[in-house]
Automatic annotation (TrEMBL):
Keywords: Adaptive immunity, Immunity, Immunoglobulin domain, Receptor, Signal, T cell receptor. Residues 1-26 are annotated as: Disordered. One of its GO terms (molecular function) is peptide antigen binding. Pfam families: V-set. PANTHER family: T CELL RECEPTOR ALPHA VARIABLE 1-2, T CELL RECEPTOR ALPHA VARIABLE 21. The keyword Signal applies. The keyword Repeat does not apply. GO terms for biological process: adaptive immune response. This is Ig-like domain-containing protein.
Length: 103
């Protein structure tokens, strides 16, 4: 798999925005794009000083929800996935990483 925006072989993975400030109670979105076909896509949350914590895995087109406030959607045709964080709280301050499993 590939974490963050590290490239492995012919596959590159990019995330945007690099940094995003969101007011408490607002919604936040992080988008991940990749360059070639994948088997699955995983979202992780890494709080300051902690190891990455698994949130969601997506196969194919569609969306998944991790209660109470994380939803991710995936469009393999567009080679992109977005993680939506609903009602951000101070405790949601973290790095959100996407990893992909190659074919």
């Amino acid at each position: 798999g590939v974490l963050g925006s590290v490239a492995s072989g012919q596959l590159s993975v990019e995330q945007s925005p690099e940094w995003r400030g969101v007011s408490e109670g607002q919604n936040g979105t992080v988008t991940c794009t990749y360059s070639s076909s994948i088997r699955s896509l995983h979202w992780y949350r890494q709080a300051p000083g902690e190891r990455p914590l698994f949130l969601l895995m997506l196969h194919g087109k569609g969306s998944e929800t991790q209660e109470p406030n994380f939803t991710a959607d995936h469009d393999p045709g567009q080679k992109r996935s977005s993680l939506h964080i609903r009602g951000c709280q101070l405790g949601d301050t973290a790095r959100y990483l996407c990893a992909v499993e190659t074919q």
